TrEMBL record:
It comes from Marseilla massiliensis. Signal peptide: none annotated. One of its GO terms (molecular function) is 3'-5' DNA helicase activity. This is Replication restart protein PriA. One of its GO terms (cellular component) is primosome complex. Binds 2 zinc ions per subunit. The keyword Cell inner membrane does not apply. GO terms for biological process: DNA recombination; DNA replication initiation; DNA replication, synthesis of primer; double-strand break repair. Zn(2+) 2 binds at C473, C476, C491, C494. Its EC number is 5.6.2.4. Zn(2+) 1 binds at C464, C467, C504, C507. It catalyses: ATP + H2O = ADP + phosphate + H(+); Couples ATP hydrolysis with the unwinding of duplex DNA by translocating in the 3'-5' direction. The keyword Zinc applies. Keywords: ATP-binding, DNA replication, DNA-binding, Helicase, Hydrolase, Isomerase, Metal-binding, Nucleotide-binding, Primosome, Zinc.
Length: 757
């Protein structure tokens, strides 16, 4: 008897063993998908991980129902990476499978090929004589005759029959025929009915063929860029990972393009990861010009069917040479990976939050590169502390680009004290007088402005003036954000939308007012203040539909809009030529966030947003509005002094035992009932303390302690470097199992967030 161990898309640890019916032997092998029964009623599509002859003990094994592939859809390297992710991030391998496979491969009939309808001549008429017979049959039906003759010339039958030697006949789609002969489907159908033509379908790909690559379109590297390029190549001789620390607009992307070309010429594939789909829009255009059809794009905005086609192309004999994508692209198959580029490597969105696996795409990419012998280049103007520390300690190579391309100066950054302006009654609305003046100057001078407000919606808070009542989500412990466009109050944690009350439900007062400003409000104010300007807004709400990113970014890049308002989405690596002023409207909301990374994140966000100013045509200006103008952090931002930020933060991390000086893991527990989750978390806390002592902190209530009706508790585990993490994970798994096996806590969810952000 043959057995197969199968990865199933279920959140349970381990593989599942099934027996292989005799007729399927040979077909069931590593990497192919199979359909199996699961439980009394359902079936799952799983991937074969192993085939063996060892009957599992003590359990009834069921048969595989069907084999879905003739060739493997998962490579051995992918499976190794999945195993690493499952182990390191302590997630069931089934969850990794779920994250990796496009939906179209996860269902039995998930993928639908696109087909096209073709027409062709019935074979019995395929000769000069046959054609005459056919034309005779049509007789006086003029429109049919015209359509038929058009078909003969499109397909080349006319010429072939004339020359008398057959010749080659081209395939003609029905649509081509309809267009060329200006006729109707009915006429073509009549020809089919007469038995002269027949139709057939053919599968066609959905993927953009992308045109011919043209390396001559590459820009020649400037002197500093060339030096950096050489240093990177040299560094790769000794190090597997190199950090390119280059200020904004220093031409990093151009260097990547040269590195990609070099890799392609050595017959290697490149994976180019970006943190944000918005960014792929611009970079796609830059890469497409040079690499044409060698470039594939992969992210969640693509349809399931398209993603299946990209996946399959990666498995084919002619895969893409370059894959550009967001986080999940690291999970694609690669046959000959040579280089991984992680652009904007400091971005937190590389870390997946929910659902499991809570993996970091940068770490995963480095692991993938290590498994395949590829090199990894991390690029950014504001390195993550972890990466910079690795570069400082010699684990990674480090290459710097301190100058902007063409020597354009970094923008001047002016701080505006909002508190002081308010005191002097000079702050009318969210834009200070200076920012107003500079935006006006930009718009009137044919330049552009970017306004950054890291909150979407109209107002982050609604409040009763009489009693202080604040509307909150019924399912989450957060206050609601007012959205004017939809006239709803929305929960940004679960998405629930509520009607705006006319009177305060607590005291009956009509004096409900809003506090704070989100991007919608900024947009309103800006439109009022600059009626002649063309204003666009880019945030989660305006980019939900397909093509919305492209439209907003293109319009701004082409100068069809003057002022762009947005959340952190606009801060990431976008390259615009005509932006002369950038306004950071509320620096404080970034600095006062309760998280150990908040401070450096605030620096990075402000430095990145500032980097959008003055990239071409003269030095830009950044106006930074704050209530705490003396914060040392702002001084670092003004001087663009990453080094100072790094020194302060790394000292703090060391003093308080945070990464990179420790391994950090959060243990989350969730349950509907507050007392149950408290009880469970306390039990878990004491269990972990028995093993790990004072390395365990908590349990505590996280900043948002209830989401989607589940109460959340958090335990922090800080482990010194050099500890045996494999052992630690064993303990943690044992603790998780002990909780699951305890009848009191069976319904409590316990999960881990390894290297949390
Ligand atoms: P970064 O990725 O460091 O922010 P980019 O690669 O986007 O910088 O370069 C900034 C701008 O300068 C872009 O508009 C880019 O086209 C231009 N640029 C960079 N390098 C060159 C070069 N060697 N030749 C011409 N233009 C360049
Ligand atoms: Zn009230
Ligand atoms: Zn909610």
């Amino acid at each position: 008897m043959t057995y197969a161990d199968i990865i199933l898309p279920v959140p349970l640890d381990g593989l599942f063993t099934y027996s292989v019916p005799a007729p399927m032997e040979g077909q069931v092998r590593f990497g192919v998908r199979v359909l199996v029964p699961f439980g009394p009623k359902i079936t799952h599509v799983g991937v074969v991980a192993r085939v063996h002859g060892k009957a599992p003990e003590g359990i009834a094994v069921r048969d595989i129902l069907r084999v879905l592939d003739t060739e493997p859809v998962v490579t051995a390297t992918q499976y190794r990476l999945w195993q690493w992710m499952a182990d390191y991030y302590m997630a069931p391998i089934g969850d990794v499978l779920k994250a990796a496979l496009p939906a179209g491969l996860k269902a039995e009939e998930g993928y639908k090929p696109r087909t096209e309808l073709y027409v062709r001549l019935r074979p019995e008429f395929g000769s000069a004589r046959g054609l005459h017979v056919a034309l005779d049959m049509i007789g006086r039906a003029d429109r049919q005759r015209a359509a038929f003759e058009t078909y003969l010339s499109l397909s080349g039958w006319a010429a072939a029959a004339d020359s008398g030697n057959g010749g080659t006949v081209a395939e003609v789609t029905r649509d081509e025929l309809l267009n060329a002969s200006h006729t109707t489907t009915a006429i073509v159908n009549a020809l089919v009915k007469r038995g002269l033509l027949e139709t057939y379908t053919r599968e066609v790909g959905r993927l953009n063929t992308g045109g011919e690559p043209d390396f001559t379109r590459m820009k020649q590297l400037g002197e500093a860029q060339q030096r950096a390029y050489n240093e990177i190549m040299f560094s790769f001789l000794k190090k597997n990972v190199v950090l390119l620390h280059g200020v904004t607009s220093s031409g990093k992307t151009e260097i990547y393009i040269h590195l990609i070309k070099q890799a392609i010429e050595s017959h290697k594939q490149v994976l180019y990861l970006l943190p944000e789909i918005a960014l792929t829009v611009q970079i796609t255009e830059r890469l497409r010009r040079v690499f044409g059809g060698k470039l594939g794009i992969y992210h969640s905005r693509y349809s399931d069917n398209e993603r299946v086609e990209i996946w399959r192309k990666q498995l084919s004999a002619a895969p893409y040479d370059v894959i550009l994508g967001a986080r999940s692209a690291v999970l694609l198959p690669f046959a000959r990976l040579g280089l991984v580029i992680v652009d904007e490597e400091h971005e937190q969105s590389f870390k997946q939050q929910d659902p499991a696996p809570r993996y970091h795409a940068r770490s995963t990419a480095i692991m993938l590169a290590q498994m395949t012998g590829a090199k990894t280049l991390l690029g950014t103007a504001t390195p993550s502390l972890e990466s910079y520390h690795s570069a400082q300690t010699g684990k990674y190579g480090l290459v710097r680009l301190a100058q902007r391309y063409k020597g354009i100066e970094l923008p001047e950054i002016r701080i505006v004290d909002v508190k002081d302006l308010r005191r002097r009654k000079m702050m009318k609305g969210p834009l200070s007088p200076m920012l107003m003046a500079k935006v006006r100057e930009a718009v009137e001078g044919g330049r552009q402005a970017i306004l950054f407000q890291n909150r979407r919606g109209f107002a982050p808070m609604v409040e009763c003036r009489q009693c202080g009542w604040v509307p909150r989500c019924e399912r989450c412990d957060v206050s609601l954000t007012l959205h004017r466009r939809t006239n709803k109050m929305t929960c940004h944690y679960c998405g629930a939308a509520y009607d705006v009350p006319q009177v305060c439900p607590a005291c009956g007062s009509r004096e409900l007012h809003t506090r704070g400003a989100g991007t919608e409000k900024i947009e309103d104010r800006v439109c009022d203040a600059f009626p002649e300007a063309r204003v666009a807004r880019m945030d989660l709400d305006t980019t939900r539909t397909n093509g919305a990113y492209e439209r907003i970014i293109d319009d701004f890049a082409e100068g069809r809009t003057d002022i762009l308002i947005g959340t952190q989405m606009i801060g990431k690596g976008l390259d615009f030529d005509r932006v002369s002023v950038v306004g950071i409207l509320d620096a404080d909301s970034m600095m006062n966030y309760p998280d150990f990374r908040a401070y450096e994140q605030a620096f990075m966000m402000m430095a990145q947003v500032s980097g959008r100013a003055g990239r071409k045509g003269g030095r830009g200006l950044v106006i930074l509005q704050t209530k705490s103008p003396d914060a040392p952090l702002l001084d670092y931002v003004v001087r663009n002094d990453y080094g100072a930020l790094y020194r302060e933060m790394i000292a703090e991390r060391q003093a308080f035992r945070y990464p990179p000086y420790t391994h950090l893991t959060y243990i989350y527990m969730k349950h509907r009932d507050e007392t149950v989750v408290d009880h469970a978390a306390n039990e878990m806390g004491s269990m972990l303390r028995r093993w790990f002592g004072d390395r365990v902190l908590g349990p505590d209530r996280p900043a948002v302690a209830r989401v989607k009706t589940l109460c959340i508790r958090k335990i922090v585990l800080k482990l010194e470097l050099g500890i045996d993490m494999a052992k630690v994970r064993q303990y943690l798994r044992a603790a998780q199992k002990a909780m699951a096996d305890d009848p009191r806590f069976r319904s409590v969810q316990t999960y881990f967030d390894v290297d949390p952000m």
